[in-house]
Design brief:
two-stranded antiparallel sheet, 409 residues, 20 helices, binds cytidine-5'-triphosphate
């Protein structure tokens, strides 16, 4: 049997990037031979094994054919006769379809190296269409390598468009899609992921709520970029530049969905978009089964981001309500993430990327003030149950009023 390093490990080594996990392909072997050497089978009916010591994945060279819709609809053929070239041709991109033996000799039948040098994401063959998830993968690679100058080949974008229009994307499971989306959002330029999905018509299918933001104007005074879709991309860009966690990036992507519902005659104003957007945020959250903390933050940011921007003008009662909604007493981190998302929203505007955002420290200070109201003295005064809650609220309000006055003077 011959063993080759394949896929991302070869690509990233040639790009001079660190290689984290290595995939191997084995040519000329049978399942029985692999088991006899101590490899552990990964699934009952897939020719993939784990190395007994390193735990890395070793797959028998295989060909694949699509036999139905979605990911389940695959038949594959693995046998010792399947060649390396046959295994490589079924892969997604030319830059992912190179193999290397232990002497670092490259097998590159589909010109992956040429495309690496030309900074092109190009599909290997029409077999690309056999897995619609690849539309998301290509957009994710575009987000990751945008800074290196990579773009999607026009013919690949065309194929992605055909796939998007065919209805195949609807067959993807929430889990597989979310895995790609969440990884893409954590890339260096997540806005490129959304842009590429939009360019090939996939965004309209996957997140029509986000797609609908493009072409919707906002008031130029606050939004020199005018377009709500462009604004969303910029907010996402800021969230990556400021190395925000996934929760914040997800909230940034969805914060303005309500603007896509504003009747045209009300443009460029978007009164109450924070509320109209909630059902859309909920729908996107549920469509991809986003983790609970992503879902929660996206809804809270959607509902309250304007409060964040107006923090310094909020009455003490409104400020307290905001802090209560976030449960800052038990969930301080979530409130920090809200503040971060608001700041990204404020900076994700043309020419305003470097603006200061005094609201952030003001909100942090308010949370500290509300949190520092002690319960003990109230307990000692005999307050219990709902009355204790009311008394706490009164004390917090008093403290916030003093905080507000001190900040104004
Ligand atoms: N692959 C593919 N189509 C998919 C998934 C994977 O063709 N839908 C192939 C590609 O050749 C890819 C390899 O399997 O390079 C390994 O896949 P994976 O580990 O998911 O991706 P990597 O390319 O290693 O990229 P990453 O750095 O994102 O893990």
């Amino acid at each position: 049997m011959q063993i080759y390093k394949v896929g991302g490990a070869v690509r990233d080594r040639l790009l001079g990037k660190p290689v984290t996990d290595i995939d191997w392909v084995v040519v000329g072997a049978t399942t029985e031979e692999m088991l006899a050497q101590g490899f552990r089978p990964v699934g009952a009916d897939f020719p993939v094994f784990l190395h007994p010591k390193t735990g890395e994945e070793y797959a028998l060279a295989r060909t694949e054919r699509k036999s139905g819709r979605g990911y389940g609809g695959f038949t594959f053929h693995a046998s010792p006769e399947v060649t390396l070239e046959e295994d490589l041709i079924r892969r997604d991109l030319t830059i992912n379809a190179m193999a290397e033996d232990d002497g670092q000799n490259l097998t590159d039948p589909y010109n992956g190296q040429r495309d690496l040098e030309g900074r092109i994401l190009r599909h290997v063959s029409p077999a690309f269409a056999e897995d619609p998830l690849r539309v998301l993968r290509v957009a994710r690679f575009a987000a990751r390598y945008a800074a290196l100058g990579f773009t999607v080949a026009p013919e690949t974008l065309e194929l992605m468009r055909t796939l998007s229009e065919s209805g195949e994307l609807e067959a993807l499971t929430a889990e597989r899609s979310w895995k790609e989306i969440s990884r893409a959002l954590m890339e260096e330029q997540p806005q490129v992921f959304i842009q590429v999905l939009r360019d090939c018509g996939a965004l309209k299918v996957l997140m029509p709520e986000v797609d609908a933001l493009f072409g919707v104007p906002q008031p130029e005074a606050h939004h020199p970029e005018i377009d709500s879709g462009i604004h969303t991309l910029s907010v996402l860009e800021q969230s990556a530049l400021h190395r925000q966690p996934l929760t914040v990036r997800w909230a940034c992507l969805l914060h303005d969905l309500g603007k896509g519902l504003t009747p045209q005659e009300e443009w460029p104003r978007h009164i109450a978009h924070e509320h109209t957007g909630l059902k859309l945020i909920k729908a996107v959250n549920e469509r991809f089964k986003a983790p609970k903390e992503c879902q929660e933050l996206a809804l809270l940011v959607g509902q309250y981001h304007t409060h964040g921007h107006r923090a310094l003008e909020l009455k003490a009662t409104t400020l307290l309500e905001l802090l209560q909604s976030f449960d800052v007493y038990r969930r301080p981190q979530r409130f920090e993430e809200f503040i971060a998302a608001c700041e990204m929203d404020a900076r994700g505007r043309k020419g305003l990327e470097q603006r200061s955002y005094p609201q952030a420290d003001y909100l942090r200070g308010a949370a500290t003030v509300a949190r520092s109201v002690a319960v003990q003295p109230l307990l000692e005064k005999g307050f219990k149950g709902p009355e204790l809650g009311e008394a706490l609220k009164r004390e917090r309000l008093k403290a916030l009023k003093a905080y507000k006055e001190a900040a104004a003077s």
